[in-house]
Structure formats: structure tokens, C-alpha cells
Automatic annotation (TrEMBL):
It comes from the Eukaryota. The chain holds residues 1 to 440 of 772 of the full protein. This is Uncharacterized protein.
Length: 440
């Protein structure tokens, strides 16, 4: 049922796809080739994407927990159900590099190199992409950059896991500010701008006050998201609006994994983790990845396929690299553009499928039949384009439609050409058969 991380890749690490360059006025570098290798793999490119991101400060245990996500995702269904997916007592924890140590990771986004193809309960296949978003989050000067990288990963993911240590602090909420603004633009009433935001609080020590897990998390979150008159106005606004822009906001309180993590030789073996930590993993991980809970990424209410995700990455990174600071309006425009591309691509897919069905065989057709097939396929494609929910101005929607029609016309010409060649070959063959018959 599951495929993906194989033996060999279990040893590999995350692939950096977005990196913050160095120096003054640094730009975000998108590694398109790397992104292409992950998102456009032939068995995954046409699947709806489920994108789970873990974002937060360096050395917060992000990669460590991502490796447990990988274990779950690559385990057979029976182990997922029995809890055996957690692993063996003496098995080293592998996948995304954890421990940091000497190589200090830079700000950026890493993806797991292989999307994990999983089947939803209704039998549909989806591709799960794991994303590791890292910032330093540790000084005033880096807050702008980190908000940016945090915003980028939130825009792209279906679940944003905000990894925090100890508690949900005032500064942590500050990173959500941009979203309240963007959310206002992107919400059209029916659809929320974003899906799930999960505050994952590590090393929660006040279990006597709020218990570990989702229940205690909900209580803490309620407290933190309450607004009061002493707060800065911006942060009060975040609190007042944030719930209306995310489909769901949750909080999970993780216990400390145990003193073994301080040991130099700690390899992430299960035997070194406390019982409480393991129980928390057993509650948390299936709640995110059980086929019943997986939610494909939606933008503007439409599913995002792996191929579309590629466009979103490009458009957003462009916004962040433009000379002006990213404004909710420019992000909105980028979303609208990528959304139109996705609608046009869905329409092209339908055109290709229709043509394949009517003229897919090797038989040559008359030009007339081919033209009819094209007209029907084009009409089906235009219907799909019209039905998809789109953002953006009427003019942009119309312009993209005209481009789509041009593209379909071009593929039609190609069909004609191929068909003419086939017709000619058939005629030559018939001629040869006739000649042989006559001369015999
Ligand atoms: P990242 O930089 O956020 O990806 O952090 P890593 O996953 O590389 O982990 C950094 C260090 O924290 C490692 O030495 C882990 O053993 C340790 N670690 C992992 N999870 C936890 C946790 O929940 N609490 C504590 N205190 N340490 C952890
Ligand atoms: Mg890491």
C-alpha cells in the first residue's frame, strides 16, 4: 500500500530546495532542478499533494520528529495499526539529519527526496511531501527573514507544524501576523485561506497544569489565543482573526524525550526514550498521517497536484525576491497566477485524455474525424477550466484561457501531422501490397 523511502534512501538526507543566500540583501535561491526531482517524479507528478511542514528554530528537534513521521509513512499498514511502526528498541533513528552539531543548518526549506505515495480510505492515491523549514528565530535582526521563510512554508503546506520549545510565546505569534492580512484577501467566505496549523510544543514541563497531548494543548491554545487589552494591537488582531483563516488550529504538548538526548552517543533508539515520549508519538503521528486524516493541499478550495506545487514554489520565491518587501497583496497575486496555471493544466490533462480515447490507437483517421475529436476534447477542456475555482481578475482568467486554446490548437496540429504521416504510411503499405499482388 505504501511505497517510497527505500533501504537506500533511508540513509539519505533532506534536499535543500530553498536557501537564503548570504550577505546584505540576501535573496532566496530556489534549486529548481532539485525541486523537479522531488515533485515531478513520473509516478507522483499527477497526484494530489499532501504537504506536511515542520517549521521552527534550529535545534528544536524538528528533524528528529520528522524521522518518526517517515517511519510511520513507510511502515506496512499492519504495523501502523499495531504501533510497531515506532521501530525496534535498538534501531537508530535515520532520515533527515538530526543532531545538527558541527554543520549549522542555514535558513531554508528542505524536502524529503522521495514523495511517499499513500492510498486514502476512498482508494485514491496521494503523494505525501515532508518539508523541514528552518530558521534561526533567535534575534531581532533575523525575524524578518524568518517570517518570510515561515510564511513561504505555510503557504505551500496543507499542515504547518510550528515547532516550539517550552511554550507558545508572544514572539511565536508574531510570525503569524502576515497571515491575518493575507487571509483577509484570500478568504472568499466559503473557503478558508489555510488548512491546518499545529503548535507542537516540545519539552512541555507543566503537565500538572495542562496534560500532554492534544487535550492539554487545546487548553493552552485557548489561553494563548485569548486577546486582552494589554497586548500590542497587531498581536491582538492576530488573535482575533487567526482562527477565521485556518480550517483548524491545534496544539499538542510533547513531553521531554528523556535525559539520554544529552548523551553524546545518543542515536535516537527507542530504548533511550521515555515511555511518556513514546506514548505521545503514538498519539501524534497517526493523527497526522493515518489515511483517514490525510488531507490533500487545497488552494482556493481546489486540490493542488504535485506539478502545481512546483509553480507555487516558483511564484512565491519570486515574490520574496522582488525588491519590495512581500506584501499580502503580492502574495495574493502570485497565488492567483499559480492557481490559473493549475486550472489550465487540469484542462490540458482532460484534453489529452479525451484525444487519447478517441484517436489514441494506431489507426489513421480522416482529417474530418480528427477535427471532430479535437472539437469535443477542446469543449471538455474549456468546461473544466470554467468549473475550476479561480482567483484573480476577469482579464487574467480570460487571458489564460486564450493561451490554453492556443496550446490545444498546437497539439491538434501535432495530431494532424502524426495522422497524415500514418495515412501516408498506410497508403504506401497498401500500394506495396497491391503492387506485389499485381506482379505475382
Ligand atoms: P532541528 O535543528 O530542529 O532539526 O533539531 P534536531 O532534530 O537536529 O535535534 C536537535 C537535538 O535535540 C538532537 O540532539 C536531539 O537528540 C534533540 N532532541 C530531539 N527531540 C527533542 C525533544 O523533544 N526535546 C529535547 N530537549 N531535545 C530533543
Ligand atoms: Mg534539522
Amino acid at each position: 500500500m505504501m511505497s517510497g523511502a527505500s533501504e537506500s534512501s533511508a540513509a539519505s538526507a533532506g534536499v535543500p530546495v530553498v536557501r537564503l543566500g548570504s550577505g546584505e540583501g540576501a535573496r532566496y535561491e530556489l534549486d529548481e532542478a532539485a525541486l523537479r526531482r522531488v515533485l515531478l517524479r513520473s509516478d507522483a507528478r499527477d497526484l494530489p499533494a499532501v504537504v506536511v511542514s515542520v517549521a521552527g528554530a534550529y535545534r528544536g528537534g524538528k528533524s528528529f520528529i520528522l524521522d518518526f513521521f517517515l517511519r510511520y509513512l513507510t511502515a506496512p499498514r499492519s504495523s501502523q495499526l499495531s504501533g510497531e511502526w515506532l521501530g525496534k528498541e535498538d534501531e537508530q533513528l535515520k532520515g533527515f539529519h538530526w543532531r545538527g552539531g558541527a554543520e549549522r543548518d542555514t535558513t531554508g526549506i528542505h524536502l524529503w527526496p522521495e514523495p511517499i505515495i499513500t492510498t486514502l480510505n476512498n482508494g485514491e492515491k496521494v503523494a505525501v511531501v515532508l518539508m523541514d523549514t528552518q530558521g534561526t528565530f533567535d534575534s531581532e535582526s533575523t525575524i524578518g527573514q524568518n517570517s518570510t521563510i515561515f510564511a513561504l512554508s505555510t503557504l505551500i503546506s496543507s499542515v504547518q507544524i510550528y515547532n516550539l520549545t517550552g511554550n507558545i510565546k508572544e514572539d511565536d505569534l508574531q510570525h503569524l501576523q502576515l497571515f491575518t492580512e493575507y487571509g483577509k484577501l484570500a478568504c472568499d467566505g466559503e473557503d478558508k485561506a489555510f488548512q491546518t496549523l499545529l503548535f507542537l510544543v516540545r519539552d512541555w514541563t507543566c503537565a500538572y497544569e495542562h496534560a500532554h497531548g492534544y487535550t492539554g494543548g487545546a487548553a493552552l491554545l485557548n489561553k494563548r489565543l485569548q486577546s486582552n487589552p494589554n497586548q500590542k494591537p497587531e498581536l491582538r488582531e492576530v488573535r482575533e482573526h487567526i482562527r477565521s483563516y485556518f480550517d483548524s488550529i491545534k496544539c499538542f504538548l510533547m513531553p521531554h524525550p528523556g535525559l539520554a538526548v544529552e548523551n553524546q552517543n545518543f542515536a535516537g533508539c527507542l530504548r533511550d526514550l521515555t515511555e511518556k515520549f513514546r506514548l505521545a508519538l503514538l498519539e501524534l503521528v497517526p493523527s497526522l498521517f493515518d489515511p483517514e486524516h490525510l488531507r490533500p493541499k487545497l488552494i482556493n478550495g481546489e486540490r493542488v497536484h504535485m506539478q502545481d506545487l512546483f509553480d507555487y514554489f516558483r511564484k512565491y520565491v519570486d515574490v520574496y525576491n522582488s525588491d519590495e518587501a512581500p506584501e499580502p497583496t503580492t502574495i495574493f497575486k502570485a497565488t492567483a497566477d499559480a492557481c490559473l496555471l493549475a486550472a489550465a493544466r487540469a484542462a490540458s490533462r482532460v484534453y489529452a485524455a479525451c484525444m487519447e480515447e478517441s484517436v489514441g490507437g494506431t489507426q489513421s483517421l480522416s482529417r474530418r474525424m480528427l477535427a471532430d475529436a479535437h472539437a469535443a476534447a477542446r469543449a471538455a477542456a474549456e468546461r473544466v477550466y470554467a468549473e475550476k475555482k479561480k482567483l484573480g481578475s476577469k482579464r487574467d482568467v480570460e487571458a489564460r484561457l486564450q493561451e490554453l486554446i492556443k496550446e490545444l490548437q498546437a497539439s491538434m496540429s501535432l495530431y494532424m501531422l502524426n495522422n497524415d504521416v500514418m495515412v501516408r504510411e498506410t497508403m504506401i503499405l497498401a500500394r506495396q501490397t497491391y503492387d506485389t499482388a499485381v506482379s505475382a
